[in-house]
Every structure is written in structure tokens, then in C-alpha cells.
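Q: Can I see a sequence and its folded structure?
A: Here is a first one.
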Amino acid sequence: MSEHLRTALRLAADGVPVLPLRRGKLPFGNCPACALNACGGRPNMKTPGPCGCPRPCHGWAAATTDPHVLTSSAWVSAWRHAAAVAYHPGGTGLTVVDLDNAAAVAWARETLPATRTVATTRGEHWVYRGVMPSSNGVRPGVDIKSLMGYARCLGNGTGVTAPLPDAVRALAVREPAPPRRAPQSRTVPLRGHGGECPHRTPTYLERGISMAVQRITGARSAVHATVYRTFLAVLSTHGRCGCLTDAHVTRLFNAAQAKGESLRHCADAWTNALTTLGM
């Protein structure tokens, strides 16, 4: 039995849901049966637990306290190659403020209430009692690990675990996005086309949205990946000139939700597509 598995079993006995991490502090990838969530896995559920596949495929959602699962034949290879043990903070009623460098630690000491701290390779984990949504990059060098997230197991640390303060909750509150501009006549040429923006043509845009809806509706597997690729295609063609409206986006989201995607999945896929295109 590996040392990582011994650690995992000890933590699981204390009610801490754990999972193995490979090099790079990443969960093990999905098995072939679960690739692109073709199995219908539950990576967005709010409590830990596996999908129908017994392997540790779904990141934080694979975290478990069941010793029979941790020692099952399906997990043997994962523990043999594990580089670290992680846990799901939200599954044990905790929130971890991950401070990734000295500057972030200094900021926390000036800003946040004292609590239990755990030393990391480059900074510290500040552990609070209470849960909230996980959120990365809330400020330079600061991530929040709680619900739907995982953090490395690095020991008990020092100090007393304090209640989750409003100052930490406020870090995850995003500024509301500016309202999307409604369609309007355009006199400035679309960059690279040298003329009036062709995306203003109602027929062209309508055909593009209809094709996108059909592509999502027709997906028989890998629905989440299909939704993301479709959003990416729509935004790459129609997203830079202001021609998309809330009505168009709603049609795309409705099509995705009709295939079983959650609203959060849709929003994440849309945001990721915007980020990929630098928009």
C-alpha cells in the first residue's frame, strides 16, 4: 500500500472526502468510457460522489470517504502513480483561501481574519469553517477552494479554524457584466473586411444561429464538448461586431439545456469560448 493511499484512508476515516492527484496537481483524466462526460457523469454536483464509473475520473467529484472505493481495483493504478492526495473542502464544510506567493500571504495577513494556516510550496492555505462557491483568480495569487473544488492535503497546519468571514465571500462576487448592446446600424467597417459588416444581414445571422441550434440538438454524445465548440464557432463568426443579442444567446442556451446541460454549464462554456477568442 502506498503512503498516499495510507494518508487518504486516514483522512477518509475522519470524514474527509479525498482523491489522488497526478503530477502537476491535476486529477486523473477520465477513463475511455467517461471521456468528455459521455457517461453522463456528475462533475457539477454540489456534494462529492462518483458517477456510474468506479474510477477516479471526475476531478473533485471523485472525492470519497468510502474505504472500499479507495482500495478498489479500479483505483489501484491511480494510487500507484499519484503524486499527492487532495480533498474536497466543501465536502467537509470548509473553505480554503489558496495564497500562491509571498505577496498574497502579506495581503491576507493585512486583510483577512486570522485562522488555521497550512504551509504550501510557495505560500499558504488559510482554512475557514463554512462553504461557498470555488473561484480562481479572485485577486493576484489568490484562489478559493470550497464547493466543487479540491485542495492538496498538506497537513493540519497551525492555529484555530475561524468561521468563514464576509471578506472572503466578497472576493468571489464578480462585477456585473455590462449590458449587451442591442443591434444598431453600423457605419464603421468590420476589421479585416473593408466594408459594411456582413453579419448585420438578418438572413446570414439567422442561418448561423439556426445551424448552431441544430448542431447542439443533434448531438448524440459528448454534449458538453459539442456545446462549447458550437458557442466558439458562433462567437468567432458573429461575436466581434455586436450583432448577437440576448435573444440569440437565449436560443443557444435553451438548446443546450434541452440536451441536459445546466445553466451553469452553458454559462461556463460561453465564458470559456469568449476567453479562448480573447473577447
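Q: Show me another, different protein.
A: A second, unrelated one:
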Amino acid sequence: MNTHLSTALDLASRSVPALPLRAGKVPFGNCPACRDNACGGRPNMKTPGPCTCPRPCHAWAAATTDPDIITGPTWSTAWKQAAAVAYHPGGIGLTVVDLDHADAVAWARRTLPATRTVPTTRGEHWIYRGAMPSVNAVRDGVDIKSTMVYARWLGPGTGTMTTLPDTVRALIVTKPSPVRSITVPLAVGGGECRHRTPAYLERGITMAEQRISEAAGGVHATVYRTFLAVLSAHGRCGCLADAHAARLFAAAQAKGESPRHCVDAWSNARTALGM
């Protein structure tokens, strides 16, 4: 069996969502319609596009634990061409601090709590238990990979995995950027996109968090309906950031939802809205 395919199946058997990567760390779509970015994802297929498949099916959203998809016809040639295997850290409640060079590694050893580490081509991956928003270049040579991104699988690593510390979460805290107002075409007349008003978006996210946290039963259904409502109101104008999704995921997980269920509910809501 192909080595990369074997690795992906092993990861899937341990509930780690996996996907094949081409040279250059570019993912394959896992349905025919999304091959070669045909459905309109961002360049190199690293961000899901508005496909009409059962769920967003490329970039981080292609990662799956379903052996029928992993060994299915769409990926049958992908594994022959694959240069590596990737996984979705946020989908299993993990955060990878990607240290891209020796200076970044030295900084981590001085600054961050020890945890499981995995050597990379130029540096190391430090893996913590807990999910958070993903952000690139939080400092020189340091990326945060967790929700809505993929990371290369380079082996289980060594050391004891520790809980995601506040020192890592604080890396993405920055001064708020100035609010930009944009004009969008409307069916009648024109005006500013209200979703760009910070108070409007913040109120919507806060209400969604409250709706989930106050659910007395039917948590699965409540989470899905809430995600659907948020995406319906805010998902088409580019207003939602990873930080907003992470807040909703955290509220859902506080009610007992698994990270994987959160990812599936979000993806299913996007699909239901044709996004």
C-alpha cells in the first residue's frame, strides 16, 4: 500500500482527520467537482470555496476520518502523486505552534511551556491540547495552526502534550485595526454593508454564544441552527474571522460538543446556505 495512504488510514483510525498534499503543501479536493480548484476556493486550494458538495471538500475541510473517502476513487490517484499527509489540528482539539527556523525554536524554548514537539524541515512543531483561532506570522517564523487550517503530519513527536497556555493564546491578540466601511450593491438602491459595523457583528456573535450556552437540551440541533443563523447573517460579506468561529466553537464545546462535531456543523451550515 502507498505509504501516505497507509499513514492517512492510520490517522483516521485514531479519529485524526487527514488529507493528501501535493508538492508545495497544496491539498487535493476530495470530490470531482472541486479538482484543480474548479469550485472557486482561494489560490492553491488552501481555503474552501463555495462548492455545492455535501460539505466543503477541499483545503482543511477535506480532512476526513472516513476510510471510504480516503480510499475512494477521487483520491485514488491523489495518493500516488502525494508528497505528504496533512491533518486538521483544530478538528481534534489541538493547536500547533509552527516554528519555522532556529531562532523561532530558541524563542519558544525560552518563552513557552514544554509540550510535545515534532521536528520539521527547518524547525519544529510544538503541539498543545486545546483549539484556538489560526493566525500566520504572529512573530518572526511563528505561525499558529489550529481551527480551519491544516498542518503536515510529520509523526507523533516526543514529549508530553500539555494544555494550551495563555502565552500562546496571547500571541494573536493585537491592537484592533481601523474599521473599514465598504459599499456593496443592493437589490434596490445602495448603502454600506451593516456587517462591517463592529457593534452589529459583536452583538450577533454574543447572542449566538448565549443561545448555545443556554440550551437546555438538543445541543446538537441548537449548535447547528445557531451556526446556520450566524452564517446566514454574516457569512457572505467576508465579515466573519477565525476568532468569531472560535468563540462559537468554544461555546459549543462548553456544552459538550466535540471539536469534530463543531467543524461538521459549521460545514453543513455553509453547504445548506450554498456557501
